[in-house]
Write a structure and sequence with these properties.
By secondary structure, this protein is α/β, with parallel strands linked by helices. It contains six helices and six strands; from the N terminus they run αββααβαββααβ.
Amino acid sequence: MSEDKITMEELRFLAMFQDFTGATAFRCIRADDEGKLYFLVSPSDIGKAIGKKGSNVKLLSKLFQKKVEIVPYSPDMTLEEAVKALFPGVRILGVKVKEQGDNKILLVRVAEEDKGKAIGREGRNIARARRILRALYGFTKVVIV
């Protein structure tokens, strides 16, 4: 795990999320620059967290005044499983951790035809993965190869 600290506000968001949805969430990660909150939720509780036709996500977005995204996560997941959960529909061929001085870099090898999907429009998918993997594992950089 990373040295990234959970703030009191994130704890408050997490408690409200769990009370509202009844889903088990392991972590809330704020992305103020994007106006988003990422909730890392047990894969078995994803449906409960999202709600019928996304009703919980919509209501929580209004309540928190930030876009809410639900990400499957469990502390029992391997790094590779966590990466695969962050890139649904992308064929992950492997992950490799590389350290350069104080930098901890994650190289994510994807199928050539899935690189665009992994990066996402305007780099959104890779930006989400970087933020979450930095908070969970302390990666300073995530690179799609």
